[in-house]
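User: Predict Exonuclease 1's structure from this.
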Amino acid sequence: MERCVNITPEFMYTVLEMLSSNNIEYIIAPYEADPQLVYLQKIGYVDYILTIDSDLIIYGSEKILFKFDGRYVDEYDKNKLLKLDGGEFLSRKLLDICILSGCDFLPSIRGIGLKTAIKILKEVHTIEAFVKYCELKNKIVPEDYLVLFAKAKSFFLFNIVYDPVKECRVNLNELEEELEFLGTKENLKFKINDNLTINRHFKPLKFNKEKDVIKTNPIKINKDK
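Assistant:
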């Protein structure tokens, strides 16, 4: 049976202390871990992201390792999506489809799931036409749905992350005009309690290839997924 674990700041502090004492780099994301990981991949700081969360695909990750069981993983490669039937459409409209079918930032219009969103969007092409289609089908659409949709899309595209090279907060993708609802770019420390704060990024001062590389058994990647 799976159990939920309550991750407290004190628990995190213990883990972070262990990482830093063993010369292992860590980054505490300003807001969401998913866009932070995608940004690290985007700038070449990491090659793959190991996760069980498919949201990484929506944020734009190009290479993900899923379902790691200690020996095997399934590989997601964004480039392979284009080779599938309808892959070009999915590649262009994936974010829109996921938001329309319901996401953390915006619930779906009642009766609109993933398959329905794909079917309608293929027919009408734009979000405005999608909303109009739903209204003509007598579906209940909030008056400010288009505004809420744009806001949700901004969270996926421009979430604030930490750049370990520039050592500052930036947007996941370049943004022409700042959006206040995304949060602050001020480099605040991570608060453990009222008396203790720590830096959000620990970068090892030295790296000893023989000492600091953790040796493990080879992992077999299933590239057919």
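Residues 87-100 form the longest helix (14 residues).
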